[in-house]
Amino acid sequence: MKKVLIINTGGTFNKIYNPITGNLDIDTKGKALKSIETSWLRELEVINIIGKDSLEMTQEDRDEILKQINLSSYQHIIIVHGTDTMDQTASYLDLKKVNKKVVLTGTMIPFSINSIEATANLASAYGYIQEVHDNGVYIAMNGRFGRYQKIQKNKEKGLFELIEY
Amino acid sequence: MKKVLIINTGGTFNKIYNPITGNLDIDTKGKALKSIETSWLRELEVINIIGKDSLEMTQEDRDEILKQINLSSYQHIIIVHGTDTMDQTASYLDLKKVNKKVVLTGTMIPFSINSIEATANLASAYGYIQEVHDNGVYIAMNGRFGRYQKIQKNKEKGLFELIEY
Amino acid sequence: MKKVLIINTGGTFNKIYNPITGNLDIDTKGKALKSIETSWLRELEVINIIGKDSLEMTQEDRDEILKQINLSSYQHIIIVHGTDTMDQTASYLDLKKVNKKVVLTGTMIPFSINSIEATANLASAYGYIQEVHDNGVYIAMNGRFGRYQKIQKNKEKGLFELIEY
Amino acid sequence: MKKVLIINTGGTFNKIYNPITGNLDIDTKGKALKSIETSWLRELEVINIIGKDSLEMTQEDRDEILKQINLSSYQHIIIVHGTDTMDQTASYLDLKKVNKKVVLTGTMIPFSINSIEATANLASAYGYIQEVHDNGVYIAMNGRFGRYQKIQKNKEKGLFELIEY
Question: What is the ipTM of this complex?
Answer without folding.
Answer: 0.97
